[in-house]
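Researcher: Last one for today. Full complex below.
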Amino acid sequence: MKGNRITQCFSALAQEGKKGLITYITAGYPDLDTTARLVKTMVDAGADLVEVGIPFSDPVADGPVIQQASARALANGMRVKDIIRMCAGIRQKSTAVPLILMTYYNPVFQYGLEDFARDAAGAGVDGLIVPDLPFEESEELLGHTDHYGLALIPLVAPTTTEKRLAAMAPAARGFVYCVSVTGVTGAREEIHTDLAKFTQKVRRHIQLPCAIGFGIAGPAQAAAVAPYCDAMVVGSAIVDLVARAGMGDPAPAVAALVKDIKCAIEKCA
Amino acid sequence: MPLPDERGYFGSFGGRYVPETLMPALEELTAAYQEARRDPSFWQELEYYLQQYVGRPSPLYFARRLSEYCRGARIYLKREDLNHTGAHKINNTIGQILLARRMGKKRIIAETGAGQHGVATATAAALFGMECAVYMGEEDMARQALNVFRMRILGATVVGVTAGSRTLKDAMNEAMRDWVTNVDTTYYLIGSVAGPHPYPVMVRDFQRVIGVETRRQVQEQTGRLPDVIVACVGGGSNAMGIFHPFLEDREVKLVGVEAAGCGLDTGKHAATLNRGRPGILHGSKSYVLQDEDGQINLAHSISAGLDYPGVGPEHSYLKETGRVVYTAVTDEEALEAFQLLCRTEGIIPALESAHALAQAVRMAGEMPQDAIIVVNLSGRGDKDVQTVARALGGED
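Model: Here's the assembly. Have a good evening.
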């Protein structure tokens, strides 16, 4: 398999002895132009990989912040094909940053599994995360994403058993997204999961970089999580800043948060 | 081969489409259910509660005056409305709560639309001394205020859901989020033949008692099997319960009735099998009301229990095989049937069940007088009197 940008990004981070920062935003919230601009803002501020959420009407794995952002984006008429086109635009301007789409299975299924893999890869997207698609159901999609060079990134949870980790290992691509808590997305005061034990268990079965996400609100938690992972995902905290900006420009606040977190994890390296 | 298969598929419908966090819980639930299913003492205990607590068997009642009104087939009503708590829902909640107890779970959560499943869950939780939280859309809380009050009296916490359409679909989303968060301690008691495997098969098995009794009763009373069985379909648990023991009897026509709301072509309906297409919602692949991008559409029905844009996967399978025919009845037709049953038989039906009645009335007039139609009268209508009063302009 040709080294895709995700693999290259993690190898570069590992060589430099650095931890990666993955930032998430919901596409089309409040509008697509802002989304494209915020991707650039986050990359300039130090994000190593960017996750773009395709909003879904019934996001059962998401907490209130992303639920509301998704609902607003859909109310504004956001379409899947527009988001893929936006990704192509981002890719034209920036060749390096890995782009990952995150969405639920039904939008992918309705788009057509092969069409989605082809169009997303064609737009320069590197990975796909589908939180309601366990590996048992992913075989067909995986055939298409592999064919077009799109990494189908698995999620693992603190509840995932060793048996399941062993079973999903052959289907894992890109990196492993370790869900830090049993719960939905959203910033939290504290993360109670034993991350050392959790990530060791994951690494025993899957030889891919580990990213930790769900619940990372700011620099302090990022620093606490950093020792256990190769990268971390910050989502709701960023989307919340977009919400708080209201009619104003969210870019300065988003840039500041990304810089703070990046700085906090670099100190740990 | 018995369906579903090992992965929970009925043909191409079913499966498990949930966050990874829940997958181990579903595996544990499947194993616990398979073990209970093979254990005669589990079924003996369930039967005890169904007889002594729920009041089963429910009668199969020949609706003489309704049949006379229709001038055609003889209409029999399977009186699930006479169960404790007033609907078929309790058959399933007692079954699942016995399973939850066996698994050592102490906290029960549920979603509810019309509130009948919520009341049945709150009842079963009270009976076994378990903590209970019921998620309910705020729109439904307003139109089913009586049931909200009943759940609270029974000791359950009713959590209002303000997201999306504030109806059953959103209540189910929120219940799943609770389960993702509290999966170690909590048992999610789904009220329909929907959701991820093993719920569709498990709920069907617990509701099958309706069809098993109907089969025996109709033979005792008439000496033969019915020509037609009619049941309403939202998620589809009462329909699956009465249909399933008759699936092999090809001479028995099975008719599922969806909510056509304001009309099938108005976009304001809940006729998932009539107007939807296959997709993934709430953990399984089945017919779904959705737009081109796979965003879930809002359903509409005067009946909160049918106001759902999805349907159980086995119904999708039975539609595709042609074994069950799925029709639709509008709000207006359901209201007419509601009043008709009140006045001809002195029975106030749930608005959900009134959809099945309307379909039966439609068919009866075109059938000979020795034909037999069984209608699953899945619930009683006390909860709906305010909605009906408003719709008929008698109040407000």
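Residues 23-37 of chain B form the longest helix (15 residues). The CA atoms of residues 21 and 202 of chain B lie 21 Å apart.
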